[in-house]
Amino acid sequence: MTPKVHAMAQRIWNYHLLNNPLEKCDCIFVLCSNDVRVAEYAARVYLEGYAPYIVFSGGEGELTKGMFPASEAEHFAAIAADMGVSEEKILVEPRSSNTGENVIFTRSLLANRGLEPQRLMLVQKPFMERRSYATFMKQWPGKELVVTSPPLSFDEYPNEQLTYSDVINVMVGDLQRLRTYPDKGFSAHQDIPEDVWEAFESLVELGFTEHLISA
């Protein structure tokens, strides 16, 4: 990766991060994925007393087909239980296949349990914080949100599952969705600074297009 590509990717990474401070909430809502570090971080936050219960949401996505022995949510819940989270305090939503369904199905699950959290903590991968926030605000308006993620930098994030290229492709795709999804009714509008969008266009020209959607 050239210094120029790294700088543009870092700019988009920084934009996706919301940098919300941790606050006590009514519920920890974990959007599951292929990254078990999110499960571990969410469990630690729960064990530090930030909410009375934790819900894991996620079925099977493009990146997790065949990766886990069960759904993303069930796998993440098992990790949390192994770390000491009481199974009585864990809720599992194992059907969703995208961010919108994460919110819609979890909202239904909580309502069916008679739970009406007013302030929720969303736990997600760092580079998906902003889109998770925008989606939630559209699909479940009127709530207070704290959005957080494992405290990893752009250079610390890649691992055996996600290379630098993978991360850049997903970040670029998510930025495109932040721009186009409000018109489709999928998410709330987010202002995108000009320099961030210029970085997007440059990275697309360089071939980081694997996660883009057709216009």
Q: What does this protein look like?
A:
This protein has 215 residues and is an alpha/beta fold. The protein has one domain (3-205): Rossmann fold. 44% of the residues lie in helices and 11% in strands. The chain has 7 helices and 5 strands. It has helices spanning 3-16, 36-47, 72-82, 99-112, 129-139, 164-184, 194-205, and strands spanning 27-31, 54-57, 90-93, 119-123, 144-148. It has a 5-stranded parallel beta sheet with strand order 3-2-1-4-5, with helices on both faces. β2 (54-57), α3 (72-82) and β3 (90-93) form a beta-alpha-beta unit. α1 (3-16) packs across α6 (164-184), α1 crosses α7 (194-205) and α6 (164-184) crosses α7 (194-205). The longest helix has 21 residues, at 164-184. The two termini are 28 Å apart. The mean pLDDT is 94.
Major sheet: size, sense and barrel closure?
A: 5 strands, parallel
By CATH, the architecture is named 3-Layer(aba) Sandwich
Reported by name, the CATH topology is: Rossmann fold
- Total strand count, please? 5
Sheet-strand content, in percent, reads 5-15%
Helix content: 40-55%
Q: N-to-C SSE series?
A: HEHEHEHEHEHH
**Count of runs of 4 or more consecutive helical residues:** 7
In CATH terms, the superfamily is: HUPs
The class by helix and strand makeup works out as: alpha/beta
Number of domains: 1
Pfam family, one: DUF218
InterPro entries: Cell_Envelope_Assoc, DUF218, Rossmann-like_a/b/a_fold
Protein name: DUF218 domain-containing protein
Domain DUF218: 26-149
